[in-house]
Amino acid sequence: MRIRCPFCGERSHAEFSYLGDAAPTRPNIGTRATVPDTTLFVDYVYMRDNSPGVMREYWQHVGGCRSWLIVERNVTTHAISNVASAREQVLAATEGEHP
What we know:
Number of helices: 2
Low-confidence stretches: none
Number of strands: 6
Strand order of the largest sheet: 3-4-5-6
Order of helices and strands: EEEHEEEH
Largest sheet: 4 strands, antiparallel
Shape: globular
């Protein structure tokens, strides 16, 4: 499998490290004064669907520029349909939230 890093170009997957599913969002636990619901974090950290088809995954280019990437990959065929910088996607999603 080959992954096209947006900064370094196409490389072997051996240069990358897989982190996991990019779909789950970190639960909001509120303030320190409140007791967090630990089941939300257990679900966030450990509970994953194992469904076939296209998934958004975190990968890091550890053998190159060390950038974190979001890779859209069919987990059945390993066909990659899109690769983007995770940082740029987060910045675009939060644009306008902070003054």
